Amino acid sequence: MLHFVFPGGLAEVWSVDSLENYGFAKTEPSSPVEELCVSPPSRRTCLTFAARRRMEKLSGKDKELIRGSWESLGKNKVPHGVIMFSRLFELDPALLSLFHYSTNCGSTQDCLSSPEFLEHVTKVMLVIDAAVSHLDDLHSLEDFLLNLGRKHQAVGVNTQSFAVVGESLLYMLQCSLGQAYTAPLRQAWLNMYSIVVAAMSRGWAKNGEDKAD
To answer: Are strands 10-14 and 24-26 parallel, antiparallel or unpaired?
Structure first.
């Protein structure tokens, strides 16, 4: 089960059969509990929001799988990051409008040809690298991740986009690892990503509350 903290003290609990190659669709909430759903052709898997605040810990097996898979990917960050962002813009083209560089990001190709955007890709991959390097003590990254969440709120990124980034991360891992991308490995990465985004979402919500005040 995966958890993302949202404004108002809510956090989504992921009940995911499979995320590969599927986009996210927002459903109308029937109560204060919201749902974010993966919509494959044959079934519908939803992410349900419930109260959650503390940072979780990863299992030893999760850490082993994450470290082993990142060992090769982390040595060549930018090409893998480009795969991830290409998938992100494919799933949500509207996110292109958030990037304002000297090179106009009117299309995915425009962005990918911008040195400034590639610098952003590098920064994102370094955040992943930092998380992998601190698997034994992810709590030590909390202040950094809270601030990262504040920055995303300030530039207009909404928390729904964090879920799409997660799908894009999985897509990159699947493309890059091939047969080494197994169900347990996928779940390990989801578990780690949920912890990272939970902290970022707390920062996002706090920044929004400060602006409202």
So the answer is: unpaired
Tokens of 133: 């390097």
Q: Are 180 and 69 in contact (CB under 8 A)?
A: yes
Neighbours of 158 (CB within 10 A): 11
User: Which residue, 71, 21, 61, 29, is CA-closest to 47?
Assistant: 29
In degrees and rounded to multiples of 5, residue 50 shows phi and psi of -145, 165
**Distance between CA atoms of 148 and 204, rounded to whole angstroms?**
8
**Could you report how far apart the first and last alpha carbons of the chain are, in Å?**
34
The per-type count for the chain, helices as H runs and strands as E runs, is 7, 5
pLDDT by residue for the chain (213 residues), tens digit each?
A: 333 333 333 333 333 332 333 333 333 333 333 334 333 333 333 333 332 334 567 999 999 999 999 998 988 999 999 999 999 999 999 888 888 766 667 788 888 888 888 999 999 999 999 999 999 998 899 999 999 999 999 888 888 889 999 999 999 999 999 999 999 999 999 999 999 999 899 998 887 666 655
Q: What is the pTM of this model?
A: 0.72
Side chain identity at residue 55, one-letter code: M
